[in-house]
Amino acid sequence: MDDDLIEYAPNIPDNVLELIFSYLKLQDLRNCALVCKNWNRFLCDENNEVWRAQCLQKVPVEAFKNDLLTVVPSYKGKLRAFFHAWNPFDCSRHVYIKPNGFTLHRNPVAQSTDGSRGKIGFKHGRHAWEVRWEGPLGTVAVVGIATKDAAIQCHGYYALLGADDQSWGWNLVDNLLLHNGDAHGIYPLLNNAPKYKVGERIRVILDCDDNTLSFEKNYEFLGVAFTDLPDKLFYPTVAAVYGNTEISMVYLGAPLDG
């Protein structure tokens, strides 16, 4: 970057910054945020025209055709969510990611359990993402986390997520917590806890600092589901068995509960 530009950086007005930054790539924008307080202030506005342009360039137009991204209020947040969405190269061969980039579709293949992981894993900090199941659950519908070593597809109808020591999941069908092939109790800890209804919002909260995994349903905190998670890189993951079911996942960033 030109030394003269750096020298006068604190005095550049916002309309000029907007013009300059509109020509830059995302990596360059990240670097610019470190130049001075003025540039950092400008780029911290997640709804300014720079982030709007980046969002509309990179996030598929199909993602804006329903209310999927309304849970993320800013343009930068929507862009961030897109880079964290389902990974089309890390899912079962019976799954494809729809053009909106956020929704997976499980093909109607008999005797198969099929899953998908997110593009980015987490090892530090606190992270939250929303999962929405559209279509029947079948006998297995598990949401949770997994490492790269966990299987993403298997033969038969099986609680794949939670079947080994590399994955942790909540089966929405029977309200069981699953890990290492064992059930770890009913969740949430309520008498006659209501079952998941298709379309309800599930929020997954991974705390890599406290080594816990928790869930919310329709913005109600359900309690800590798993504790003492190992120090590994975890990815948002789901596993499904029902043909033509669709599952959307939107990354939210750090949870807002402190």
UniProtKB/TrEMBL annotation:
B30.2/SPRY domain residues: 64-256
SMART domains in the cross-refs: FBOX, SPRY
Gene Ontology cellular-component terms listed: SCF ubiquitin ligase complex; synapse
Major localisation: other
Subcellular location: Synapse
Assigned keywords, A-Z: Neurogenesis, Synapse, Ubl conjugation pathway
CDD domains: F-box_FBXO45, SPRY_Fbox
Domain F-box, first and last residues per copy: 6-54
The keyword RNA-binding belongs to this UniProt entry's keyword annotation: no
UniProt xrefs under Pfam families: F-box-like, SPRY
Pathway linked to the protein: Protein modification; protein ubiquitination
UniProt keyword annotation of Hydrolase present: no
GO biological process, one term: protein ubiquitination
Source organism, top-level taxon: Eukaryota
InterPro entries: B30.2/SPRY, B30.2/SPRY_sf, ConA-like_dom_sf, F-box-like_dom_sf, F-box_dom, FBXO45-Fsn/SPSB_families, SPRY_dom, SPRY_FBXO45
Function according to Swiss-Prot or TrEMBL: Required in the presynaptic motoneuron to down-regulate the levels of wnd and restrain synaptic terminal growth at the neuromuscular junction (NMJ).
Subunit text: Component of an E3 ubiquitin ligase complex composed of hiw and Fsn.
PANTHER family: F-BOX_SPRY DOMAIN-CONTAINING PROTEIN 1, SPRY DOMAIN CONTAINING SOCS BOX PROTEIN
Family: Belongs to the FBXO45/Fsn family.
Protein name: F-box/SPRY domain-containing protein 1
Protein species of origin: Anopheles epiroticus
